[in-house]
Give the backbone structure.
Amino acid sequence: MGAILYACILDGRGGAQVLDPQTLEKDDESLPHPEAMTWYHVDYMAPNARDVVARLSGASYGTVEALFAENTRPRCDTVAEGMLLNLRGVNFNEGPQEHPLISTRMLATERRLITIRRYYMLAFEDLREGLAQGRGPETMGTLVSFIAERLTARFSDALERLEDRMDTIEDEDDTGDGVHVAPAELTDIRQDIAYLRRFLLPQMTALTRLAAAREPWLSEDNRTEIRQDLDVVTRYVEGLEELRERAMIIQDAARHAAAERSGRTMYLLSLVAGLFLPLGFVTGLLGVNVGGIPGADKPWAFWALVGGLVGVGVLQWVWFRTRKWI
């Protein structure tokens, strides 16, 4: 498989003419007319992906490098070749997920959109199906806003999973003191929240800049749709803030309960030590291996000592009670 995964010419009525990716990569004469409204979908991992994007877009070296940057955050910038847009979406691919959120990079002009992805993304599959059925985007602005909307909509699944996990923890913590909470699970949830916020906050900024962009191919309807996506992302961020607060409340309660248990244990040990301190002193003093121990030759001395120690213990207990230490 080559660098181009999919290519088509939009017909302006919701459909598209699909182009042969292999022919496009090999033959410059097969490229559509510059006035044709074209979408190219490129595989980031293809060895020749950079060269293909540079040839399709005519972009400068700096723009191409920005599109293929290794570690990216959501962004929206105007460059000489058009609009450079980087957005994140939820990773629904099967298997272990090193990256729960995956990026798509876009270079958009009035007549051409190039999208680049590293992993399979459902948003582009939705777009291809819509175009195949004749109900896809009709303009370049609608095409970009459609991708933004599909990426944004699927964040709700990730947030719902987090909310379900938090609800489960709160249900298990029936006493409200965090005693029955697994610290590792709560830590995992807070890490997931932090990860999502790391990308959703700049995604808000990127959508804000996109909605405010003065590009001729962005209609007022397109900007309205993008602002709606921005409102949805804002609600997601607010939901993450709420989840973070709930997690902090449970974690603080668990720490407070653990500190109370530790304090009670130390207090009990201190009382026991205080109770036996004078008793241990007396028995230690009488146990020294020297002459002159009182009552050493009296058969009743042992029981007298035991009775005295019991009496001292009772007096200590009464004193502790009057001082309200127990």
Remarks:
- Residues 220-286 form the longest helix (67 residues).
- The CA atoms of residues 316 and 322 lie 10 Å apart.
- The chain has two domains: 4-257, 292-326.
- The two ends are 78 Å apart (CA to CA).
